[in-house]
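If you are new to this repository, start here. Below is one unmodified record pulled from the training split, so you can see the exact layout before writing a loader.
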Amino acid sequence: MDKLHIRPAVPEDASTLLALYRLVSRDPLGLIRRPEEITPAYIQQFMQASLKRGLILLAELGEEVVAEMHAWTPDLLAFQHVLTGLTIVVHPLHQGKGIGKQLLSHFLQQVRLYWPHIHRVELHTRMHNQRNVRFYQRMGFQIDGPLKDQILSAEGKLETPLSMAWFNPGYKGNTQAP
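And here is the target side for that same chain:
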């Protein structure tokens, strides 16, 4: 089996990410976005924000991109210490093999080492998806709290996501962004 290679994404990865996101979005427990919401504009939006004010990484096995994750800092100066919108996608055929864990570990290490101005990394996960909740807790995320009935599922049911955060032990206060 090929060794997992993690690298920063580049704008030329957009079409590969579009295909990966469309595939992952078919699983109702995967992304909150539905398959029809995975558009080139959506991919461009998070890529531009992550490339300009955040971090976006890909995991490859051989020549195949099997996972991606990203987060970015909002435009408001009051939130310059936050990476938000953390999203991880892993190709369905490669889930359960530790790829997400390796990618998230690498991501958090990058934040610790090279982003000392980042204090917190934020994400949302569905409260009923205890597998994801436990995964993020094992990776050092803490539960901030539930956002009652914030999600309307494709089946028309209200779901409650949990707000979770990881706090950077390398935080150095108000320093310059990389």
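Two things worth knowing about this chain: Residues 122 and 165 are 5 Å apart (CA to CA). The beta strands are 4-8, 54-61, 64-72, 82-90, 120-126, 142-146, 151-152, 158-159, 161-167.
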